[in-house]
Amino acid sequence: MDHILTRNYVQVTGHGSQPMIFAPGFGCDQNVWNLVAKAFEDDYRIISFDYVGAGHSDVNAYDPIKYSTLEGYAQDVLDVCEALQIKEAVFVGHSVGSMIGMLASIQQSHYFSHLIMIGPSPCYLNDPPLYTGGFEEKDLLGLVEMMEKNYIGWANVFASTVMSNPDRPELAKDLETRFCSTDPIIARQFAKATFFSDHRAELTKVRIPSLILQCSEDIIASPAVGQYVHQHIPNSTFTLMQATGHCPHMSHPTETIQCIRDYLNR
């Protein structure tokens, strides 16, 4: 058990009995949840973790084969659940973190009571005429190539694009710093696993109640993508937020907290 908790730098706080797991998005560590998670500490047992290769995780545990797909990251979530003997957890995931949680819930649904997906996308590639993921293959190949040639430059550009709150440049700088703290080789491999995956077929396999939170202006995962996820996951709820950008838990934590509370209270 200890090696799993060390591997993913698992932190447990809060005063409640029901677990609430917070999963970061691509290139981020668990600290991106600080503002949101704190609001639930009185009522839940808060569980935070880092993906292998990010934050304070054990980088020596990184396996390029295992982590070449999102299933490898989902297995880590299941390992953490087993190590902590978790039952009926509320899983809150951002972006690819929500897809990782979805895959974990499909494999072992008894660990989870609800799935809260913030800015999810099951497939980033356009697949006309039935699906618009938002990106052409050449765009994503260019993104990975830029990561390889000029990682710092990529981090600067991508952070601004993802955050998309130009009137608050400190938010993009914060995200850029998180990107830069991750090993570039591991980040690039995670990017490939994230942006070239297609988990549309798994959406219908979700068996727990789910909330899809989508920002009103999000270049990474548009409201149309969120609606697609909602339409294909049984027993799901869709909420379009007033927040803009792709990281409402960082840019609009109050609204994010309220949306989660409203859903769980219902």
Automatic annotation (TrEMBL):
GO MF term list: hydrolase activity
Residues of the AB hydrolase-1 domain: 19-253
Keywords recorded for this protein, A-Z: Hydrolase
Domain of life from the UniProt record: Bacteria
One matching Pfam family: Abhydrolase_1
Family the UniProt entry places it in: Belongs to the AB hydrolase superfamily.
Protein name (record): Alpha/beta fold hydrolase
Source species: Halalkalibacter alkalisediminis
